[in-house]
Write a structure and sequence with these properties.
Elements lengths: L1 H5 L6 E7 L8 E7 L17 H12 L5 E7 L1 H7 L1 H14 L7 E5 L10 E4 L7 H24 L5 H4 L5 H10 L23
Parallel strand pairs: 1-4, 4-5
Antiparallel strand pairs: 1-2, 2-3
Helix pairs in contact: 2-5, 3-4
Length: 202
């Protein structure tokens, strides 16, 4: 995918992807990554196809390589509730691209094109399996978000965030039934929105 963009005269191509659209709690994370053309990164693939150990290994390879330009950004649970998950995801993507140390000439975004995106781009359905830079972005976004949920687990141990990353597992739903939602839960998401419990728990 990148070679086709290079052939059109664009030199700096950023892959953009997100992690965490589906969970009931926590932020959505987005990453933007510009890879050097000669990068060799064995095993680089869609983050969902990799084990946690493999994702961590590739994350370190990417983030510690000074030739790789990358940025990661979040949209919070409160922003997700205020905007809806699609708009919040696009907000996180814009923040990630804005955070890059160099301005990309073109972006490849996993999924559909983003209306109003400030940079020339293509939306690539299942792009994390078709584009190296999108795959890199998917790994950085996923590892970043998983670490954040691990930190939130220490703050809110009753929910088990480190085990399920905020997804609606049986364990998580039972914890919600017993303890009610906390400030990290997405109040607009079912079944959180259906809970007959106060939402002011810190």
């Amino acid at each position: 995918m990148e070679d086709a963009i290079y052939a059109r005269g664009f030199a700096r191509v950023a892959g953009v992807d997100e992690a965490g659209r589906g969970p009931l709690a926590g932020p959505v994370a987005a990453a933007a990554v510009i890879l050097p053309r000669d990068l060799l990164c064995p095993g680089l693939d869609d983050s969902k196809k990799l084990s946690a150990r493999k994702r961590e290994a590739i994350y370190h390879l990417l983030c510690e390589d000074p030739r790789v330009v990358w940025s990661v950004a979040l949209a919070t649970a409160a922003e997700i509730d205020a905007l809806n998950i699609l708009r919040a995801t696009h907000l996180a993507m814009r923040r990630a691209v804005e955070g890059l140390k160099v301005v990309p000439d073109y972006c490849l975004i996993d999924g559909l094109p983003v209306r109003g995106f400030a940079w020339p781009h293509d939306g690539i359905v299942k792009g994390d399996g078709r584009s190296c830079s999108i795959a890199a972005a998917s790994i950085i976004a996923k590892v970043t978000r998983d670490r954040l949920l691990h930190d939130l687990d220490a703050e809110f141990p009753q929910y088990g965030f480190a085990k399920h990353q905020g997804y609606g597992t049986k364990q998580h739903l039972e914890a919600l039934r017993i303890h009610g939602p906390c400030c990290q839960h997405r109040r607009s998401f079912e079944p959180v929105a259906q809970l007959p419990l106060p939402f002011d728990r810190a």
